[in-house]
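Hi! If you just cloned this repository, the fastest way to understand the data is to look at a raw example. We've pasted two of them here, unedited. The first protein comes first, obviously.
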Amino acid sequence: MKYPIALISLAFAPPLAAQVVELNPTKREVVEDPAEKAEPASNPGTWVTTDDYPSWAARAGTKGRVVTNLTIEPTGRVSRCEIVTSSGVSELDRTACEKLMERARFKPARDAKGVPVASLYEQAVRFTLPSATQLPVETNIVMEFVIARDGSVSECTVTGAPEDAEKDPCEAAPTFEPPRAEDGTLEERRYRMTHKIERLPVDD
């Protein structure tokens, strides 16, 4: 399953030595304070996802936060990505820039006349994997009850239910269709329902 990696637009002071990834080797002249700022034209949650994690970093559970400065062209595409705050892991930094340049799309900034202009946009990317699912807990829940002739439940007992269960299964028991014998006459029936999770040995 694909999960979005958190993207946050914030301003941070750049480090002494910034890294740059760019499509155009010529540094673009940009309007630093346009009349209308650039805005995302697509969902930022799809720009960098957990599928983009370098495999070794995902296995190691490596996390990091990257802050980038993007150059947005008048077309709305990203032509340059500068790392202004590193995650401390060069491959995460490079992945963030590569995916932002590949996928990020913007409504371009505009000048006072409404003409699209090149501008800068700060974008933070937080690399964090979704929490792992908790291991199954060994359980042996047994529920016994009687279904009366009118379909109601009585004599209900439960054993083995966890102490933190939100509901008493007996209280949540539904009303069933009235049980009938083969000849069609109404009768009572007793049932036992079990739910068991068991840990098994692993074969060598």
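Ok, and the second one:
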Amino acid sequence: MKKRLPLLALMAVMVASLFGLYGCGGGPSVEEQIKADLTSQFDRVNADDSELMDSLDEVAGEEIEQLGISSKDFMASYLDGFAYEVGEITVDEEAGTAVAKVSITIKSMADIMTNFQTAFTERLGSMDLASMTEAELYKEGGKILLEVTDAAEPKDSEIEMGYTKNEDGEWEVDDSAEAALMGAMMA
């Protein structure tokens, strides 16, 4: 296969769309605001969220289609077993920072890619490549990718999501959250 699978691009869009968060306004405590914010964002993580799927299709829809699968089918498989729990939230009002501990259960993209490469290489050894078109080869890769993703077991990770208070006094997730989430997805 000439092209690299766009899975990292899919992950990046998922993370970016998940944490393009709005600041939390007045009313409830900072801890309650952050917990509500995280809950509303993590509750969106499923293959039925049209905004998430549209974002993924924008970035990698054509490449995924070339594999003979849909972004929704891949994400439904990848997110099977996804769970989260917002834990302790520590706020330092004076410094304008907060940290939320979140337990995440998700399939490891690193494991999926390693297993995909192994399975694809093994399958290539048993195929008559001379009689296959490039399109057939890609479709076989898509089939294997879904098989490997379906078989992957979710792993538990503990991450810390940072928040900062902006100039308007609203609490916003900070850039460290994206790296933490990507780390959990690759664990």
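That's it. A detail worth noticing about the second one: The chain has a mean pLDDT of 85.
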